């Protein structure tokens, strides 16, 4: 049951990141076009958007992991009466998962924007 809940949360996070990145790319389309117009290779512009998403995913994964550790401990002791150990070794996994979800979910909007600007030029 917990694995199914985790999968649904992961899919929801990916959909949210895709929507946010689509909005970001649409808002900054002129900025990206200006970068290309002054000589930046399109690949660098794509890499710029993807690295921004990956960095945000990494930071989100760290804060989400810390929140999960603290929330699990509070919920375990308060609601369930069970001592939940503090396991900071899970933080790198949460950070990596946040990075991967953000980068993969951002691929479609960034590549779609890149290919649409490519057709126009």
Secondary structure blueprint with pairings:
Layout: H1 2-27, H2 29-37, H3 42-78, H4 91-120
Helix pairs in contact: 1-4, 3-4
What can you see in these coordinates?
The protein is an all-alpha fold and 121 residues long. Helices cover 84% and strands 0% of the residues. The relative contact order is 0.17.
Helices and strands, in order, run as: HHHH
Helices, by number, come to 4
> Structural class from helices and strands?
mainly alpha
Got a strand count? 0
Largest sheet composition: none
Q: What does this entry show, briefly?
A:
The protein is mainly alpha-helical. The chain contains four helices and no strands. Helices cover 84% and strands 0% of the residues.
Short descriptors:
mainly alpha
């Amino acid at each position: 049951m917990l694995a199914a809940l985790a999968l649904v949360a992961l899919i929801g996070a990916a959909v949210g990141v895709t929507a946010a990145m689509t909005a970001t790319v649409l808002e900054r389309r002129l900025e990206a076009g200006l970068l290309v117009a002054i000589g930046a290779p399109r690949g660098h512009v794509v890499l710029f958007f993807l690295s921004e998403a990956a960095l945000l995913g990494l930071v989100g994964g760290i804060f989400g992991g810390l929140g999960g550790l603290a929330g699990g401990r509070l919920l375990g002791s308060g609601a369930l009466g069970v001592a939940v150990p503090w396991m900071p070794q899970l933080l790198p996994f949460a950070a990596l998962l946040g990075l991967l979800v953000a980068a993969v979910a951002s691929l479609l909007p960034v590549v779609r924007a890149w290919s649409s600007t490519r057709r126009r030029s």
